[in-house]
Automatic annotation (TrEMBL):
InterPro entries: AtLOH3-like (IPR055298), HATC_C_dom (IPR008906), RNaseH-like_sf (IPR012337). Residues 232-291 form the HAT C-terminal dimerisation domain. This is Zinc finger MYM-type protein 1. Transmembrane segments: none annotated. GO terms for molecular function: protein dimerization activity.
Length: 317
């Protein structure tokens, strides 16, 4: 792909029109730079490690246990790349550059950067720039994202929730895990007395529901919850029914993300494609939370505008 792209750009530099030649020349210079090749290889390594997890999370029928195992292995592999992957990565980048005529900088030389110079930051070597500012920074960002989205607490919550899964004839059912789930994460939703009753309720549930033909071929907690109501067993096992409903609220946490993507398609049109990230974020917050935004009057906004700092302009009489 790299060779094909450079060939097309070289052809445009020679045979393209005036504007095409200018754009192609700039793109070709960037493409043939060491920094571009280096970033390309860093992205390849990180995306190669995270690809399996991304595919697992996008599956319609997710296996939570295997998905959580992939989360753990992904974190470990990214950390391993951070700790021990620099030398092999640099070797691959140098080999790639040598085979394609990309100039390789002297890693021990002082790295020159206009922004760093203007900000009067301490000078660093070229190796420091690529290893710390790009390689380590990119990996740390990925680890931060994984840790924030899949913390130990949320991972344990999902793992314990599997015990309620009706898939494969309640193969994952585990009364101890269900009790732990209620005690650790939903203690405020059940009294101490109800916690004790739940243990005995689970014993009856285990002998009753999995063997009932009406509950065969269920694959999700949502289907299980509906079936419990349909056959009246939600009244027989009210504590388990309540716990299932509480667990079913977990997917609601993705609603904000889905709404954000939907809003972005509406807000960032072709006429607004140069909108900066800060303004786009503010715009999307107002759009997504429009029910709250409608409560703000013009006078309230003007007063807040004045409160931020002293203004010369008089926006209201």
């Amino acid at each position: 792909m790299f060779n094909a792209t450079t060939s097309v750009l070289e052809d445009l530099v020679v045979n393209g029109t005036g504007s095409q030649r200018g754009d192609a020349t700039y793109a070709f210079r960037v493409l043939m730079s060491f920094e571009f090749v280096f970033i390309l290889h860093v992205m390849k390594e990180i995306m190669g490690i995270t690809d399996k997890l991304c595919q697992a999370l996008q599956q319609k029928n997710q296996d939570i246990v295997n998905a959580m195992c992939l989360v753990s292995s992904t974190k470990s592999l990214i950390q391993k790349l951070r700790d021990f992957g620099w030398d092999s990565l640099l070797e691959n980048v140098n080999s790639f550059c040598n085979s394609r005529g990309v100039p390789i900088p002297d890693m021990s030389a002082t790295y020159s950067d206009i922004i760093r110079t203007r900000l009067k930051k301490d000078s660093v070597t070229v190796e420091h720039h690529y290893r710390v500012d790009i390689f380590t920074a990119a990996i740390d960002y990925q680890l931060k994202e994984l840790n924030s989205r899949f913390s130990e607490q949320s991972t344990e919550l999902l793992m314990l929730s599997v015990a309620l899964d009706p898939k494969d004839a309640f193969k994952s059912f585990n009364a101890c895990d269900i009790c732990s789930l209620a005690k650790k994460f939903y203690s405020s939703d059940f009294s101490d007395q109800e916690m004790i009753h739940m243990e005995y309720e689970l014993q009856h549930y285990e002998f009753d529901v999995p063997k009932d033909p009406k509950f065969h071929n269920l694959s999700t907690l949502g289907e299980l919850c509906q079936k419990l109501v349909e056959v009246g067993k939600s009244n027989v096992y009210p504590l388990i029914d309540r716990l299932i409903r509480l667990v079913l609220t977990l997917p609601v946490s993705t609603a904000t993300t889905e709404r954000a993507f939907s809003a972005m398609k509406i807000i960032k049109t072709s006429l607004r494609n140069k909108m900066e990230d800060g303004f786009l974020t503010d715009y999307m917050i107002v759009y997504i939370e429009k029910e709250i935004a409608r409560r703000f009057t013009t006078d309230m906004i003007i007063d807040d505008f004045y409160f931020m700092k002293q203004r010369r302009a008089q926006l209201k009489k």
